[in-house]
Specification:
The protein has 200 residues and is α+β, with helices and mostly antiparallel strands. Helices cover 52% and strands 20% of the residues. The chain contains four helices and five strands. A five-stranded mixed β-sheet has the order 4-1-2-3-5. Its main location: membrane. Pfam families: CaKB.
């Protein structure tokens, strides 16, 4: 009687462990799919792949610009902000080009090097942009990214999804997938030895 209870408890534990392993594998596959349709296209779409050094030539704050209205956005999404324009000397080619913060900055407003997020306090936005401009004037040389193919003549300060960031994004689903497969393998090994011992 006691042996039957132990066998039943063992089977229940194996079933739960197997369900846990399969659930982890399924969740990791869903995460892979989500990353593949959201982050990977932005990474492959970016042409600013080569890192070089940029030297600031001028960093000026122009008149206030309006955040352009994207498709589907409402009028309340448009807000004025000081337009910072940073021109740098590209070490790789020696050209004078305009610097943007990220790939997304160029899409939002190609006239400004920095586009702030919408905030209610306009003074904070102005102070932040003035601080960024002073930092560019203080640190004259810094690493930047350019397009080696020549499709884009401008440069960006940082990539939205660098290679290290993309690898880190794939780290967690990979760990979950490995853990799930390990649980399934251990359950199958346990079941194999149980059947083997019962047969003997």
């Amino acid at each position: 009687m006691l042996g039957k209870k132990l066998v039943t408890a063992q089977k229940r534990g194996e079933t739960r462990a197997l369900c846990l392993g399969l659930g982890m594998v399924a969740c990791s596959m869903m995460m892979y799919f989500f990353i593949g349709i959201t982050i990977v296209p932005f990474y492959t779409k970016s042409v600013w792949t080569t890192e070089t050094m940029c030297k600031v030539l001028k960093a000026n704050i122009k008149d206030e610009a309006l955040c352009p209205n994207r498709e589907g956005s409402e009028d309340e999404d448009i807000f004025p902000y000081p337009c910072l324009q940073v021109w740098v000397n590209l070490t790789a080619s020696g050209q004078e080009v305009m610097l943007y913060q990220t790939e997304d900055t160029l899409e939002k407003n190609p006239k400004c090097s920095y586009v702030p997020d919408k905030v209610e306090n306009a003074k904070e936005v102005k102070a932040r942009i003035e601080t960024i401009a002073s930092n560019f004037k203080k640190y004259q040389t810094f690493p930047c990214y350019y397009d080696p193919g020549g499709t884009q003549t401008n440069v960006i300060l940082s990539r939205l999804y660098p290679p290290k960031g993309l690898l880190f994004t794939f780290l967690w689903p990979t760990l979950m997938f490995t853990g799930g497969c390990l649980i399934i393998v251990l359950v199958k090994i346990s079941q194999y030895f149980s059947v083997l011992s019962a047969w003997q």
